[in-house]
Amino acid sequence: MKLGLSGNLTKAFIASPLTPLLLLAAFLMGAVALFAIPRQEDPQISVPMVDIFVNANGLKAGDAVELVTKPLEDIVKAIPGVKHVYSETNDNQVVVTARFRVGTDEDTAVLRVWNYVRAHYNQIPLGIPKPLIVGRGINDVAIVVLTLTPKKSAAARWNDNGLYKVASHLRNELMKVPDVGQTYIVGGRADEIRIDPSPVKLSLYGVTLRQLVDRVRNANRAFRAGAFEGRNRHIPVEAGQTLKGVGQIGNLLLTARDGRPVYVRDVAKISFGAAPLTHQAWQITKAAAGGMELRPAVSLALAKRKGSSAPVVANDILTRLKAIRGRLVPSDVRVVVTRNDGRTAQNKVNELLSHLLLATLTIVGLIALFIGWREGLVVLVVVPATILLTFFASWRLGYSINRVSLFALIFSIGILVDDAIVV
């Protein structure tokens, strides 16, 4: 009988003393990969989306569509790899989103959009500022969300501004955890310095709103002007200054009126405090006397870096949180983990691995019962070795282990054993 490629390989290895060593090596490499391979809840499919933000100051939505949106869409559609283009146009602002084909590298997508838009920006009317280009991908999705709320006894002492400050300090510390990617805060209000000009006083002193804006903007600027060299020393020289408080802003000189200097404080009210309330998050709980109780809430969301394992990063974040909680988070503020994709991914992967083991044992039992124990023993050795080698290859090729890849492995076991039985 003439043997094919598979038959000749089988004949070469079936009596070879290297076969047990190769099987042992497969088990060892697969065991290492099983612990080292990144674990995710969902497959890390690369479908990059790039947002292009353009400030079209002074243009109504209808004019912005004709002057900015349509030319920008034509530019983006010509970029290689772009599959769909979406746009949103409002008064004074245009947002164009490019969605690339599946599998395109995220960094490559952002670089293509940047280079192509900058090279063809002469198609946009003069006076429109350069766009802001931001890439979006699967790794921007948060894997851990921590929600800060005041305890019931301290609800009156905490508002969303105070919780935002605590979340901001907590964010700075948790960003030091290895493989933590993008972070952002949802809810709450940050501190800001507000300058509220009075139209009456502006008119009285003959100061325009543009003069006021330009004076404050240009005063809050410092830059390197040069350096002095001598006596083995290098002394940098800076020009200008950055404003450091309400008092310095108020003392900025605008102009002179009737021989008297006019300062910013003369034409505007300057205050420091929480930003204006535009959105708010709440925690809703049942009150003791019935009904619902509202307490302010601020959420801190943390994503992971590309290629890292969600369970490992999530566990490191929570470990770091436990270590710094007493130092950064007041005792009357609760920190609740409202999202933990690392734990979810770990549980689902472990469950699917147990199903994988159960499927293998079921197949071995059926073959041993209906065909023979020697055939069952072969399957018991070969199928796990094949699966572990698959894990090793996936790890080295940069793939992750997730529910989709595990479902595919479970399905492939049936095909693998079924072919062997038929042969």
In brief, what are we looking at here?
By secondary structure, this protein is an alpha+beta fold.
Describe the structure.
This protein is an alpha+beta fold. The protein has helices at residues 5-14, 18-36, 61-77, 106-119, 160-174, 199-205, 209-219, 246-250, 264-267, 310-328, 341-370, 373-396, 403-422, and strands at residues 49-55, 82-90, 93-100, 132-136, 144-150, 180-186, 191-197, 221-230, 233-241, 253-257, 260-263, 268-274, 282-286, 292-296, 298-304, 333-340. The strands form six sheets. Strands 2-3-1-4 form a four-stranded antiparallel sheet, covered by helices on one side. A hairpin with a 2-residue loop joins strand 2 (82-90) and strand 3. Helix 5 (160-174) packs across helix 10 (310-328), helix 11 (341-370) runs antiparallel to helix 12 and helix 11 (341-370) packs parallel to helix 13. The radius of gyration is 32 Å and the shape is elongated. The mean pLDDT is 84.
Layout of SSEs?
Blueprint: H1 5-14, H2 18-36, E1 49-55, H3 61-77, E2 82-90, E3 93-100, H4 106-119, E4 132-136, E5 144-150, H5 160-174, E6 180-186, E7 191-197, H6 199-205, H7 209-219, E8 221-230, E9 233-241, H8 246-250, E10 253-257, E11 260-263, H9 264-267, E12 268-274, E13 282-286, E14 292-296, E15 298-304, H10 310-328, E16 333-340, H11 341-370, H12 373-396, H13 403-422
